[in-house]
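EI: anyone free to look at a 104-residue chain?
SC: sure, send it
EI:
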Amino acid sequence: MEFLEKVRIIYPDILTIMVTDHADIKLAIKAINEAGVYKFLLKPWDDIDFKSTIKKTLESLQVIKERDELIRKVKTHEVTLKDLEKRYPGITKVERDEDGYILP
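SC: here you go
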């Protein structure tokens, strides 16, 4: 467990898979809460389950990276919009009618 906690500190964006030979719910809860374990595999594992776990973990990592990139883009756009609003007050405001259509 100590190793996983250190890994989490050094590599905060990593997704860890814990492999254990016994199913202990207390250990699982501790590993999730304290070491940020993403998935568990019980030994001996089934090769299909193993491959599926690795694939799902990699897919989740990709989704996290895409989310982080979108957040970065949103923050960049927010800065641009604030700058435009300072230079041209009211430029980001849009008037709409009761149906939601933009008024001229």
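EI: The longest strand covers residues 37-42.
SC: 👍
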